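Lab channel / #folding
Pinned by the channel admin:
"Please post every new chain as: sequence first, then the structure tokens as a reply. Keep commentary short and put observations after the output so the thread stays searchable."

First post following the new format, from NK:
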Amino acid sequence: MGLAATIDRANAPTDRPSDILDARRLPPPEPLQRSLERLADLDDDVVLVQRNDRAPQHLYPRLDERGYEYATVERDDEVVTVIWRP
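Reply from TO:
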């Protein structure tokens, strides 16, 4: 399954530009920090796709606080969290 199909499976907007953050080899808390920094820099219409080797459990409450929608899709070799503004 490609990333486009993963975004679709996450029920995220597919008609928006996307930005990919590969956090698979980053130690905690770098995936959390980089995701929040990237979101702060992106336009509201951009969907952030975070590729990771585990579900970003500590990121979810931060996304809730900031009003983001998100979904995590587990793939064979990675966990992909798709984040967007409603």
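NK: The radius of gyration is 12 Å.
TO: also worth noting, The longest strand covers residues 47-52.
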